[in-house]
Structure formats: C-alpha cells, structure tokens
C-alpha cells in the first residue's frame, strides 16, 4: 500500500448490450487499482459490476475505452496475447468455483502453472502444495475436484489463482454460492492474502459485510462508479 | 506451448468419458479391420485370378505368323503409290513357323536390361493316337527349368515332376487330354505330327491350368523331344517368350523389337486387356466399401466429440479463463480425436491382419485351381498403410470441426450463464 504503482487502470470504459436492443450497461467507468490494494466492487444486481469484471479480466473484449494492466494498454490486443496475459498476471475466482472435475485438486492448482511453463513440474508441485497449505487444503491434494464440498472447492480455486503469483486476483462473487460458515472462511482467507502477502485483489460482491472488510470499495449504480 | 500438458488434459477428458471414447475407438477399429481384411481378400482373389492367365503368359512373345507376303512382286515393278495394283487370290507364302536366326535374337534380348528372363518354345500340332481314334492336340516343347522360373510351370503340374521332362521322349499331358485318352503316369502314348512322323512318349505327369479348353489340347515335352518329333535341327524354335522386370513396359518393348527382328511381337496388355480391367474394377469397389466404412466411423467420432464438447463447456470456459488460448483448446480436442483414431486404427490393423490369417485358413478347393487349397489373401503392406493413413485422416477431420467449435467458445457466456 506504500507502493502507489498502478496495477489496473480503467479509462472511460463504455459497454453496450445489443440483444434485444441497444442498452448501455457501463458508462464511462474510470478507476485505478494500485499494487497491494484489496478492492471490492459492490452494487445492486444488474448494475454492471460482473460485466465490468469480465472486461477487466480481458475475457470480454467488446467495449469502448481503454484498459491498462501493469501500465500497459491491452485494448485491442490479439486473443492469444490476452490469454497469455490472463495466465501470467491474473488469477480468477468464480462464483461457482469452476474446478476441472476431471483432475485432482493438486492438478487443478498445477494446470495454470504448467501452461505458463516457467517452472518445472516438480517445482510447481511443490509450489502448489505451498499454496494449498495456506488454505489448509494440502490433505485433500490427491482427491478429485468433485469430491470436495463447495467451500473446499472455493479454497482450491483461490489456491489455483495464486499459482503463477499473479499481479492481481479477480473474484466474481467468490462467496456468493456459499453458506455463512464457508463464506466466512473464504473471506478470512482473502483478508489473509491481502495482509500477509500484500496480494492485489479486486472482488465483485453484493455482500456488504465482505465489502466492509476490504481496503476500498468501488460502488456502482446503473453502469456508473459513484 | 507444451504438448505434454495438452495431451495430459486430453487424456483426462477421455478417461472421464471412457465409455464414449471406447465406442468411438471401436468404430474405427471395426472399420479398419474390415477395410484391411476386405482389401486383402479381394486382392488375394484378384492376384489369383489374374495369375491364372498373367503368370504363365509371357510379357512379350516373339513368333512367326503365316501370312501373305506384304511385298508382292508387282509392287516392285509398278509403283503402288501412283497406281492401284489389284491382285486376286493371294496365298500365304511358304514361310516357316520357326524363327530365323533365333540365336542372335536371344543374344540381343538377353543384352536388354529390361528383360528378366527368356524362355524358348517349340510348338507342334499333333494327334494323340488312341486305338483307332486320333485326338487333336498341341505339344509344347519347353525348357522346364526356365519355364518354372519364369512362368510357374511347376504350380500347374499336379502330378509328377516337371524336371522329368529332361529325359528324352517324356511328356506331361494336359489333364483333359489324359482323361480322354485314359493315360496313367508311366504309360506310353503315341503321337503323330502334322507332317506324319510318329513318336512314342512316356507320360511323366499331368498338367492342369484350370482352363479346361487349354488342358484338353495342350501337353508339354522338352524342346529337343519336340524338335526330334518334327525332324528339325536344334536351332528350330517357334516362340521366344520374354518376361520383363516391369510388365507395364511390355507394349513399348514389343514395339522396339518388332521391326528390328521382322517378326511378330505380342505384348501382354494387348492380348489380355480384359483381366486388367476386371481387377482394377474389383479393387475400386473394395476401396469404395472400405472408405465408406471409415467415413461412417468418422461421423461416429464427430458425434461423440460434439457431445463431449457440450458436456465440457464449463471445462473449456475455465481453461480459457486461466489462460489457454483458442488454438490450445483446439489442440486438446484434436488430440482426443487423433488418439481415438490412432489407437482404434492400430488395433484395427492388428485385427485386420488376424482376420486375414483366418480367411487364409478357410478351405477353398476347386477343380479349376489345382494349386489353391484355401482362400487366397494378399498381405501387401500397402493396404495396411492406406488403412492406417485413412484412419488418421478421417479422425482428424472428424475431430477438426468439433474442435474448432470448442475453440470458439466464449468463456464469458458460460461463466455468466450459470
């Protein structure tokens, strides 16, 4: 937080939906997220916060305006470069955990690392176990993903997001699908990441309690940041 | 991008859908098995049927034909270019059937690098004398070693040893002839030549080609026996049979020498055109059936991969979200298709070979084909490589379109849709 270097910057982002008729869902969205910040985006459902997250995550490229990640403009870059960038610099946590059910917990955490190819497999396995340990999931490493409970899956998903030491972790209602108890556990883990590891995070949520625990809250209404 | 990871993911996806993957692979296996065994069997039959004629037919045959002299005396006196000479009742000249200067012709032919071997022949019109009955026939004077080497003569000698012909005054009778004159091995028969000389010959074997008309007339003896029968010298030869390394070169070869030697030269293609046509049509049909089978199994793979992609939309979306690009996703699904194709195809090739071995054991005995005891099968590696290549190509194509669809999945749609 002492380092004011911007990690993510949105400049005048507009987004339209065309089906069934043209609707503007994002109106001139501007904000900056600096390294080490733990930011939440809140707003009523339908205010465009998930849409914004998909744009920020580079998966949705159909928008107007400019997006900078790591002080580099990524608007208009080819899909392959964006995929590489996602792999290297962005970690994801989705609402419905989205682990690959065909693989074990450990492999799920490993795959983005293997894709990046920066470390050898042995080294990655070691790193993956380290990440799982943060969330006390190391005992489940060899289970199949679909043998875990929802809360456990979400913790594995966070571990997976961390494997490549991303610049920023983005979460789309990561606690939205969990009961109170699990939701608290996951929330505690996010806080731990922010405090102990200084991890930059941007979390979309509609849970005011969650938002209160973050460094900064970006509030959205009707496609605008207020 | 590491293929190892892509293959690992492809493998996990296949294991998760083991049953479907197996069904797709079995489809490929079945079609390749059928393809290989069908072609092997069909071409075995082709080779056998063609061999009936082609094996023992010389690629090029040189002989003298009795025909009118093309240079009539009047043409040398009055130029036929400027006038119209009409001659009635031209008769063939009293030319010999034997080949002039045969020794030097043989020497020339032996010097040609296209020639695999040469076998000479003397044929003589005879009557087989049985009591008071004379049966029309043809005795071929041959060199049994050469004839065996070049034209598989021994395959058609059903009883007796072809080399026994080297004893003078011995004969191998056509099966039809032997049946009609009731001659057993060891019997002595009498033949009369067209010129009237008579000779007694000892029967040392039977010859059966499978073509009844041929076997009813033809018999074989050594060249010297027939020369003696005709009262001719040992330079008397009526046919020079040439086998070439490449039988497709036969027409050209015949053309090259026809005018040089001034004798008739027949090539195998002209004489037996219909056999070529028959075999190529049969091969065509078996290829068509085999490829149809492969295409059908290709559709099977296409369907199964399509289903897999619908089931795995989540997986595809998540892979894309964590940094796999479109071509990585495409590679994953193409790897699945190719794995199915290669594994299914390889097992299919093995099973096809086994099926061929099985067909090869089925008894198939027929009067016409004395040397054949079981169904003929062609084990030409060509069919195996074609089968293998086609299985890979069809599965690649069957995988390509679903894979392209998978690579076009928009992760936002899937993740938002939940």
Automatic annotation (TrEMBL), chain A:
UniProt keyword annotations, A-Z: ATP-binding, Nucleotide-binding, Translocase, Transport
Name the Pfam families for this protein: ABC_tran
Q: Does the keyword Transport apply?
A: yes
GO MF term list: ATP binding
Q: Does the keyword Electron transport apply?
A: no
Q: Which InterPro entries does the annotation name?
A: AAA+_ATPase (IPR003593), ABC_transporter-like_ATP-bd (IPR003439), ABC_transporter-like_CS (IPR017871), MacB-like_ATP-bd (IPR017911), P-loop_NTPase (IPR027417)
| CDD domains the record matches | ABC_MJ0796_LolCDE_FtsE (cd03255)
Residues of the ABC transporter domain: 8-226
The record's comment on protein family reads: Belongs to the ABC transporter superfamily.
Extract the PANTHER family matched here: ALPHA-D-RIBOSE 1-METHYLPHOSPHONATE 5-TRIPHOSPHATE SYNTHASE SUBUNIT PHNL, LIPOPROTEIN-RELEASING SYSTEM ATP-BINDING PROTEIN LOLD
Could you tell me what this protein is called?
ABC transporter ATP-binding protein
Automatic annotation (TrEMBL), chain B:
What topology in the membrane does the UniProt record assign? Multi-pass membrane protein
Please name the PANTHER family in this protein's record: LIPOPROTEIN-RELEASING SYSTEM TRANSMEMBRANE PROTEIN LOLE (PTHR30489)
Its name, as the record gives it, is ABC transporter permease
Family assignment from sequence similarity: Belongs to the ABC-4 integral membrane protein family. LolC/E subfamily.
* This protein's UniProt keywords: Cell membrane, Membrane, Transmembrane, Transmembrane helix
**Could you tell me where this protein is found in the cell?**
Cell membrane
Query: Domain of life here?
Result: Bacteria
The UniProt transmembrane annotation reads 21-42, 284-305, 332-354, 383-401
Annotated ranges, domain ABC3 transporter permease C-terminal: 289-410
Q: Which residues form the MacB-like periplasmic core domain?
A: 21-244
Organism of origin is Algoriphagus sediminis
Chief subcellular location: membrane
């Amino acid at each position: 937080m002492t380092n004011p270097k911007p990690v993510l910057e949105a400049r005048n982002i507009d987004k339209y939906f065309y089906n069934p008729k043209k609707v503007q869902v994002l109106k001139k969205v501007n904000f900056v997220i600096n390294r080490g910040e733990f930011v939440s985006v809140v707003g009523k459902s339908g205010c465009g916060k998930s849409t914004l997250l998909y744009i920020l995550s580079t998966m949705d490229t159909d928008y107007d305006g400019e997006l900078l990640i790591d002080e580099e403009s990524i608007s208009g870059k080819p899909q392959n470069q964006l995929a590489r960038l996602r792999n290297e610099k962005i970690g994801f946590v989705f609402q419905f955990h989205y682990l690959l059910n065909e693989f074990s917990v450990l492999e799920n955490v490993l795959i983005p690392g293997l894709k990046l190819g920066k470390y050898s497999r042995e080294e990655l396995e070691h790193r993956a176990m380290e990440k799982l340990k943060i969330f006390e999931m190391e005992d489940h490493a060899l289970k199949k993903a679909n043998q875990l409970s929802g809360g456990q899956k979400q913790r594995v998903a966070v571990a997976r997001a961390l494997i490549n030491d991303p610049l920023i972790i983005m979460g789309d209602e990561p606690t939205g699908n969990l009961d109170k108890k699990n939701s608290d556990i996951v929330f505690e883990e996010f806080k731990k990441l922010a405090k102990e590891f200084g991890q930059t995070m941007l979390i979309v949520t509609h849970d005011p309690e969650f938002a209160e625990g973050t460094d900064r809250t970006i509030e959205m209404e009707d496609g605008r940041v207020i | 991008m590491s293929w190892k990871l892509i293959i690992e993911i492809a493998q996990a996806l296949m294991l998760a859908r083991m049953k479907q993957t197996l069904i797709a692979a079995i489809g490929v296996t079945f079609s390749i098995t059928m393809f290989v065994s069908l072609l092997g069997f069909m071409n075995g039959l082709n080779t056998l049927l063609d061999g009936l004629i082609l094996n023992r037919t010389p690629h090029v045959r040189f002989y003298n034909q009795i025909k009118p002299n093309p240079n009539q005396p009047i043409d040398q006196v009055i130029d036929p270019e400027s006038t119209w000479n009409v001659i009635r009742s031209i008769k063939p000249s009293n030319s010999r059937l034997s080949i002039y200067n045969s020794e030097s012709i043989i020497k020339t032919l032996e010097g040609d690098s296209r020639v695999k071997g040469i076998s000479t022949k003397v044929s003589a019109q005879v009557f087989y004398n049985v009591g008071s009955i004379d049966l029309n026939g043809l005795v071929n004077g041959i060199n049994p070693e050469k004839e065996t080497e070049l034209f598989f003569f021994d395959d058609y000698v059903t009883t007796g040893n072809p080399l026994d012909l080297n004893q003078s005054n011995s004969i191998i009778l056509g099966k039809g002839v032997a049946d009609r004159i009731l001659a057993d091995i060891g019997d002595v028969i009498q033949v009369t030549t067209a010129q009237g000389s008579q000779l007694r010959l000892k029967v040392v074997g039977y010859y059966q080609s499978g073509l009844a008309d041929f076997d009813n007339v033809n018999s074989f003896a050594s060249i010297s026996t027939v020369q003696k029968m005709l009262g001719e010298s040992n330079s008397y030869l009526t046919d020079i049979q040439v086998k070439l390394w490449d039988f497709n070169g036969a027409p050209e070869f015949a053309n090259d020498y026809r005018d040089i030697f001034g004798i008739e030269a027949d090539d195998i293609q002209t004489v037996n055109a219909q056999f070529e046509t028959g075999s190529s049509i049969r091969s065509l049909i078996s290829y068509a059936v085999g490829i149809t089978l492969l295409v059908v199994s290709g559709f099977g793979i296409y369907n199964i991969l399509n289903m897999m992609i619908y089931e795995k939309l989540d997986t595809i979306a998540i892979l894309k979200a964590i940094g796999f690009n479109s071509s990585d996703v495409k590679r994953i699904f193409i790897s699945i298709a190719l794995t199915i194709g290669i594994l299914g195809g390889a097992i299919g090739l093995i099973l096809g070979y086994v099926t061929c071995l099985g067909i090869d054991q089925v008894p198939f005995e027929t009067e016409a084909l004395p040397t054949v005891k079981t169904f003929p099968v062609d084990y030409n590696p060509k069919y195996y490589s074609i089968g293998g290549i086609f299985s890979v190509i069809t599965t690649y194509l069957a995988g390509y379109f679903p894979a392209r669809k998978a690579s076009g999945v928009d992760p936002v749609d899937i993740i938002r849709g939940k």
